[in-house]
Write a structure and sequence with these properties.
The protein is of the alpha+beta class and about 110 residues long. It has 2 domains: about 30 residues; about 55 residues. The chain is built from 1 helix and 5 strands; from the N terminus they run αβββββ. The protein has a 5-stranded antiparallel β-sheet with strand order 1-2-3-4-5, with no helix packed on it. The radius of gyration is 38 Å and the shape is elongated. One of its GO terms (molecular function) is structural constituent of cuticle.
Length: about 110
């Protein structure tokens, strides 16, 4: 081994010994023990009660000549899961699209053909 290699090995071992001494010294000190928090645990989340379905009916329409936003919708429910409604809108080409639909727990949402 030449002198340069011996010096490198010696420096390497000195670094290892130094790192071991630092690690041993730091291992003697435990993390500080903090007291338990002074506040109580949060309360449990209460679920919102389930309400029975109720009949409803609504309708609205928009006619904004500035933005050319023209549409409407109406919908009603019997309170037993059956919903019937319609919506319409004016397409960019000026034609009016009207869609009628029904929905229930058995068949889901369906467009009424016609």
């Amino acid at each position: 081994m030449n002198r340069s290699a011996i010096v490198q090995v010696t420096i390497f071992f000195q670094i290892i010994i130094f790192a071991t001494c630092v690690a041993t010294t730091l291992a003697q000190y435990a993390a500080p023990a903090y007291p338990a928090p002074a506040y109580s645990a949060p309360k449990a989340y209460n679920l919102e009660p389930a309400y029975a379905p109720a009949p409803y009916s609504f309708e609205y329409s928009v006619n904004d000549p500035t933005t050319y936003d023209i549409h409407s919708q109406s919908e009603s429910s019997d309170g037993n899961g059956y919903v019937k409604g319609t919506y319409s809108l004016v397409e960019p080409d000026g034609s009016t699209r009207v869609v009628e639909y029904t929905a229930n727990d058995h068949s889901g949402l369906k467009k009424i053909e016609g």
